[in-house]
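[SOLVED] Need 3D model of a two-part complex

Original post:
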Amino acid sequence: MSKVVLKGVEKVYPNGFKAVHGIDLEIKDGEFMVLVGPSGCAKSTTLRMVAGLEEISGGTISIDDKVVNDIPPKDRGIAMVFQNYALYPHMTVYENMGFSLKMKKKSKNIIDEKVREAAKILDIEDLLDRKPKELSGGQRQRVAVGRAIVRDPKVFLFDEPLSNLDAKLRVHMRVQLSQLHQRLKSTMIYVTHDQVEAMTMGDRICVMNLGKIMQVDTPLNVYQYPANKFVAGFIGSPPMNFMEGEVIETNNNIQIKIKEVKLKLPLDKAKNLKDHIGKKVWFGIRPEDITIGNSDGENTMKGKVKVIEFMGNEAFVYSQIGNEELISKVDFLGAKDLKNGSECFFSINMDKCHIFDYDSEKNISLGLKIKGEFNV
Amino acid sequence: MEGEKKSKKGTLILTIFLAIIFLLPFYIVLTNSFKTQKGIFLNVTGLPFGQFFTLENYVNAFKELDFVRSFFNSLLITVVSTVLIVIFSSMAAWMLVRTKSKLSSFLYFLFAAAMLIPFQSVMLPLINLMGRIGFLNRGGLIFMYIGFGASLSIMLYHGFIKSIPVELEEAATIDGCNKFQIFWYIIFPMLKPITVTVSILNAMWIWNDFLLPQLVINRPESHTIPLKMFYFFGQHSKQWHLALAGLVIGMIPIIIFYILAQKHIIKGVTKGSIK
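Solution:
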């Protein structure tokens, strides 16, 4: 059992700045939890508080049902992989990996056994005698992970470990870390600002912003059922389109009115919006839920194509609808005949749309579909 | 192309000129140390050949200097002072860098300001005070050297430590190190290039220093090499031949130390610790 529980955790700096606003989070035993959010959202601070590198101003952090607020980092049963690797430059890979065991006064045989075992897992056995400066970025990263494995921790903490690697190596290491998790079955907390890493690696992801948790759920649920406008806009690339609108009722049909266009909501969404008739809302639709055509129809908006970005098998089409910009993702064939400046009709898949409260920005179209914990 | 060639030539000429200026005193000292007193006065710039060549100067200077004892005194004072300066300065600089407070900034500027105070202005009150508390001779001298050497050393360490990523210390904390272990196992080994620089600067200054030992050491058996050298210059006669031979003997250890130490000034020792 190595469950990590954060209860009302706060971080206030001496200058009065409140970085973390009383967050609650439970990370299950063996779970790969990804903390994701933009720069300055306090995801690293949260991780550092779990590690014990940052003092906790309020609340409690427990590892294995034991409150660790006042326990020094070395006794928390954690291991951390830093963004910049933090390998000791004057030590060899072997010494780097065995250093924590040396500090624990373990025998040379045990150190040797553990280091070689970790080196075998990460395929770095032939690098053990080298110094960090003789290694490539990817190798250094593996050594940093190896150093964590050797500690045999209850919880692995990763602080943006792949952000210094080039794109190709990052994909490779992403797969390696996922495999490592499957192999070790340890609890892992992984901080990243890269939503692709979050979506592909996490059992669950915790989206953070401004020191608060926005949503905690599986990657698919976060994508399909974003709890609020921030999560909807942060997860997904290109991001979700947002337009200001108003909930109206015409002939017993609940619709969204955006400028002069009226979009008819499907029944399941419409029933959730009954209390919002006449109110301003944010209308959100993902780029892949828009199709571009030449003819007008239901739930269609007219606009002008501004820029087309071809990505190989698909294309991103940036268009202007009134004053609003709309991004659509279409397959290569669908975009081939489009031209910059041409007028088109953008058909919205209303089953996939999201409606957010104008002030609180909570997703009001989902009803009970949001299963994860979240607070705004 | 033409301009570049000219500039390279100019640099070369300037380098040779400066090298001659700097090496000339060594030439004078070395060549004249092998001449008799008369030989020195007859031709100071010539090579030591012929009737004026002698090795006696070295034998006599060795005896007159009481070389073994004075060498031991110089070595003891230099090594102990330098080691203590290195230890205290590196520790102090590390704490000054890692502690972000007004007090640490104030202390840092205090150390920097201390470098501006001329030694001569504090020399007499200091000796007076140290004499009153009975803390003179070798112990007092070492203590004073730590005080005088700390400012520059702390400045040098401070600049270097700032470039060491704090994540290394955090990694060491997680690995189970306390503050002292972090310093000795992680930080101090990484300071090797600057430690060599600090050691060279301090060791050379302390080894060659004359004024402070002259004021502080009042027991003849504790005299250092530069103090003993003073005996070659009497009121009525100056024994240049012995003084120059003594100078050569005196500078050999520090030159050997410099040659050995400068090999260890490795650039970019932190390379590889972080991206």
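Edit: Chain B touches chain A through 25 residues (CB under 8 Å).
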